[in-house]
Amino acid sequence: MYDRKFIRNISIIAHIDHGKSTLADRILEITHAVDLRKMRAQYLDNMDIERERGITIKAQPVKIMYDSDDGNRYEINLIDTPGHVDFTYEVSRSLAACEGVILLVDATQGVEAQTIANAYLAIDNNLEIVTAINKIDMPNANIDETQKELYDTLGIKPEEILLVSAKTGQGVHELMEAVIKRVPPPSGDENAKLRALIFGANYDSYKGAVAHVKIFDGKLSKNDIIKMMASGMYHEISEIGIFVPDMIPTDSLSTGEVGYMAANMKEVSQARLGDTVTLNSDPAQKPLSGYREVKPVVYSGIYPSDPQDYENLRKAIERYKLNDAAFTFEPDNSTALGFGFRCGFLGLLHMEIVVERLENEYDLDVVATAPNVIYDVVMLDSSTKKITDPSKIPPEDSYIEIREPYVDLTLITPVNSMGDLVNFIQNEKRGEFISTENAGKSRVALHFKMPMGEMIFDFFDKIKAISHGYASMDYEIGEYRKSDLVVIGILVNKERVEALDTVVHSSKAFSVAKSLVESIAESIPRHQFEIPIQATAHGRIIARATVNPFRKDVLAKCYGGDVTRKMKLLKKQKEGKKRMKMLGNVEIPKETFLSILSIGKENKS
To answer: DSSP for 402-413?
Structure first.
């Protein structure tokens, strides 16, 4: 067992695409943690989709041994974390298992929204921050300006900032030495009663739920009978070990160490994140302070393209849930799409990831409906219903009001884009401008309160376009507010398609409805009969578009003759199409159900 003074537990935090995984690769290389023959880019990103998209989705721990310039060998438990705002919960969980962080900033991009958000997460957890500016080898690197931004926004002095290139390895050794000197060793009492924090989990087909743990006090050994202090459940440890980076079994984990435990838990939910593990025979009295449980904020319906694949989809979703505790689902039924599931996500990127993994990893073809947020509907008896599906919102005469979630939004942007962004968010997204502050030379941080529902419609693309790609954002869910909202229902060939329902502010109802029916009409292929696409609100039709029919040239066989013969043929065709329209089923492609996401590209309400 290692002396605790030679242990360092750290995370790498940064804005998305600032080089966290690349830095982790270089650290693995200089510590010889991975055989060079097995080394690959983004080594700690285990999923194919992570490497394809170039992003980290799930925090991944690894134990490395580092020979320092002071002559000692240190055990460093490193956690590579995601950078996208949707996965902030992964970052907060990782920080609970650390004493320090490496805050990485891209020299070509400067301080961005998630840089500040993650830095404050580290400060709130009383962690030592080792700041490094990455990509110093790039021709457009602006080191001086980035140092100034770090001082202006976070008060970090230039002399405390290290310069590295995660790509070439320049400065990585100096960064590791700074970690050894600045980050304190873990505290705790080896002789106290066991207290271990579960900060992550994944599912293994043979081991069951595997919990990632940090030992704060005491010692955890194989075959121990443990108690989960929050859930009250008991388990016997079947395997315990460390990440190097593959899972390697050991006999025990001691105070300050990070590793994993398997205890024949059949579901990841049994290894509840933030729970404290203690010994059943000699339990601790007080649990460790965990962190708030993450809850979905965006909902969407997921249905099989072929109704016969429902069982396969159910099994795939249940298996996926084993590895993603933040994902929720419940059975659902739609008149248009049949049986499926209503699923909850942390954000739009999380939804994209889940749908893509279901299709790629489980060989499914699924239909995902347009995402929406959770609404609070105050009924006539003053009770409140939480609605995750627009089609389930009660009739207008049965409730008092609808409340929608607002977010506290932060944008960091160049000064010359400030006016256009403020106008866009206030006029098109119903946002409320709160304040502005300096974010370095020629950059400002803008603070808004804005309905979360407005973020679903082309929001990120628009702010990138307005700022010429330079704006970055971060947000937190705030309070619920009363809003004048209306449900837009869609009729296809005079039949209601509940899966296409959406909720918008009443001021945008007509323009959104018009754009929506036109978008749906473009996505539905032509049939042998005319198909009306209608939008309803407040019990009446407010917009319509038409999918024109194919027209067979029934007059082609007429080479002259009396005009009455031609009229007779045309009348016969018209009557035939009328019967076909009454009996025909409209084919609705899967892209139609995401038409709501594209309406903002034309809608300028």
So the answer is: EEEEEEEEEEEE
Which range, 71-75, 557-561, 568-572, is most confident? 71-75
Q: What is 24-44 written as a DSSP string?
A: HHHHHHHTT-S-TTT--TTTT
Residue 74 to residue 54: CA distance in whole angstroms: 30
Same fold, 298-368 and 393-483: yes
Confidence check: pLDDT of 583 > 50: no
Query: Among 3.30.70.2570, 3.30.750.24, 3.40.50.620, 1.10.150.20, what is the CATH number of 487-601?
Result: 3.30.70.2570
Whether 576 shows a pLDDT value over 60: the answer reads no
Fold (CATH) for 393-483: Alpha-Beta Plaits (3.30.70)
pLDDT value at residue 422 = 93
Whether 21 has a pLDDT exceeding 60, the answer reads yes
What homologous superfamily is domain 195-279 in, according to CATH?
Translation factors (2.40.30.10)
Q: Are 189 and 255 in contact (CB under 8 A)?
A: yes
Tokens of 249: 């079994």
132 DSSP β-pair partners: 104, 162
Q: Which amino acid is at 253?
A: L
- Strands 276-279, 298-304: pairing kind: unpaired
- Please indicate whether residue 430 or residue 468 has the higher confidence score (pLDDT): 430
What is the spatial distance between Cα 472 and Cα 357, in angstroms, rounded to a whole number? Answer: 26
- CATH class (in words) of the domain with range 4-182: alpha beta
Listed by start position, the domains of the chain span 4-182, 195-279, 298-368, 393-483, 487-601
Q: What is the DSSP letter of 444?
A: E
Mean of all residue pLDDT scores within the chain:
82
Q: Give tens-digit pLDDT for 419-443.
A: 999 999 999 899 999 999 887 777 8
> Taking a C-beta distance cutoff of 8 angstroms, is the pair 272, 198 a contact?
yes
Burial of 543: CB neighbours in 10 Å, binned 0-12, 13-18, 19+: buried
Q: Please report which residue ranges of 55-112 form alpha helices under DSSP H.
A: 88-95
Residue ranges of the alpha helices (H) in 302-397? 310-321, 348-361
Phi/psi for 395 (5° steps) reads -55, 150
For 184, phi and psi rounded to 5 degrees?
-75, 155
